[in-house]
Amino acid sequence: MALETQKVIDLNVHFYNTLAGQFARSRVKPWAGWTLLLKYIKASCLIADIGCGDGRFLTFLLNNNINCAYTGYDTSAELINLAKKEHAQANFYTFDVIQNKLPRNYDVVCAFGLVHHIPNQKALYKTIKNISAVVNKQGLVIITIWKFNPQKEKTFNIKSRELGISLEKGDFLLDWGGTGVNLRFCHLYDRTEIENLIKHFERARFSLIDQFDADKENTYLVFKKLV
Questions:
Q1: Per the structure, how many domains does the chain have?
Q2: Which Pfam families does this UniProt record tie to the protein (predicted)?
Q3: Strand partners, 146
Q4: For position 110, which CATH number holds?
Q5: Is the CB of residue 4 less than 8 Å from the CB of residue 164?
Q6: Strands across the sheet containing 218-225
Q7: H or E segment to which residue 86 belongs
Q8: Closest residue by Cα to residue 57 from 20, 105, 109
């Protein structure tokens, strides 16, 4: 893996490990868009939640009486620890899907709030490959794309050189707390990039069966595996 890609991954891992508690407390409510996904998730399905954080999506599923076989994955060990405390009977693992294929197959793979943290197209397409490989026939991949407004977020792109990270069009270093100390990498996808992402899933024999906007700033994409 390219050194810069690893630097971005490490930056985001450090951010979430450092601020795990604060971040989790700031995001307690379920996303409104999740309600529109309930029709796709059956109680008997095997589901992987990539970028699961503190397990908030599992809480949502249980509150909606969906007791599926759930496994959560996240690069932040501190967020995983919070998830395990909240859901002691569930399976949670520290895991990097950019570098590794998941260890088993699933009927549904969700990636909420993940793809905007992936630092470049090569890493994104490798992630798509790793996800696609573990989806059962007729299974689903559900992802969200965060359409944040850089003018409303606290950006510190000036720090990229200090961190040894080259930023491209749409790349931002977003701050937490206004000090420029706790930064995370985020990429703002344009329409062409979203279309290319969809094409990559289609090349992997997936069909886009649903697309909608929700939560004010998220675009949801639901793909079904054809073979």
A1: 1
A2: Methyltransf_23
A3: 218
A4: 3.40.50.150
A5: yes
A6: 91-94, 69-74, 46-50, 106-111, 135-146, 218-225, 206-214
A7: helix 77-86
A8: 109
pLDDT in tens, 85-110: 999 999 999 999 998 999 999 999 99
Task: Give the span between the Cα atoms of 94 and 24, in whole angstroms.
Answer: 16
Rounded distance between C-alpha atoms, residue 91 and residue 70, angstroms = 7
Residue where the block lists tokens 């931002």: 172
Cα angle value 34/40/42 (rounded, 5°): 105
Question: Which pTM value belongs to this model?
Answer: 0.94
Tokens of 189: 């996808």
**C-alpha span between 110 and 118 (Å, rounded):** 15
CB count within 10 Å of CB 212 equals 12
What does residue 143 show for φ and ψ, rounded to 5 degrees? Answer: -130, 160
* Nearest in space to 131 (alpha carbons), one of 145, 142, 146, 122: 142
Q: CA 146, 142, 99: angle at the middle one, nearest 5?
A: 80
Instruction: For residue 32, give its domain range.
Output: 3-225
pLDDT at 12 (0 to 100): 96
